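Hi V.,

You were right to ask for the full record rather than a summary. Here it is.
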Amino acid sequence: MSNRLVNWFKLSSPYSFYPVAGRMMPWFWLLAALFGIAGLWVSFFVAPTDAVQGEGYRIIFVHVPASWLSMFIYIVMATWAGLGLAWNTRLSGMMAQALAPTGALMAFLSLWTGAFWGKPMWGTWWVWDARLTSELILFFLYLGFIALQAAIDDPRRADKAGAILALVGVVNVPIIYFSVKWWNTLHQGSSISMTKAPSMAQTMLWGMLLMALCFWMYSVAMTLKRVRAIILEREAHTEWVHQLAEVKS
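Predicted structure:
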């Protein structure tokens, strides 16, 4: 047990994590591609046409996974930021910084695909609906986190300031999730529940889950790629980074 803990603590070092991330990254890119191909095939060629919404409903195969990941990534980002704030670990702040742009991308995709779905279904691109508004706030939280870190020159101070913002913003995630239950909202309720059977065809469900896995694997791969770049930037003064640069040159 003690040896396992030592190994985990060893991985918390940027020096140890950098090569591990490099070895893991290609596998997540491969999984993202495989899940993406399978998910798109099922979503657009296998899943039946919706009886009410017609072919336009297929936007949910991008919209729903992007929405899920926008919330999940924020929780993971805030967790890493909180660990860095509590334990003052360098890698934690780097991971939070690496996650933020991908989380912002997912929130952006969620908002825009929701607008494309809302125009034919609601007759408008945007309404100040509880779920849409709270998702927009999540997008601004991501942008605020990125901007705050970029505005502070000292990385450790930037990590601490970003961590406080990230932890405060976590309260918005359950608001997004439960908004359709708490308020009278135009947004339809969840089609997938932990306590009820899915209210959609099995092929629709499989398409959505495959696309969610694709987005998840992409997010992991992109985060690993970005954190490696952040490690090299922040650790540029260390001997091992200089040796790595000499080997590459």
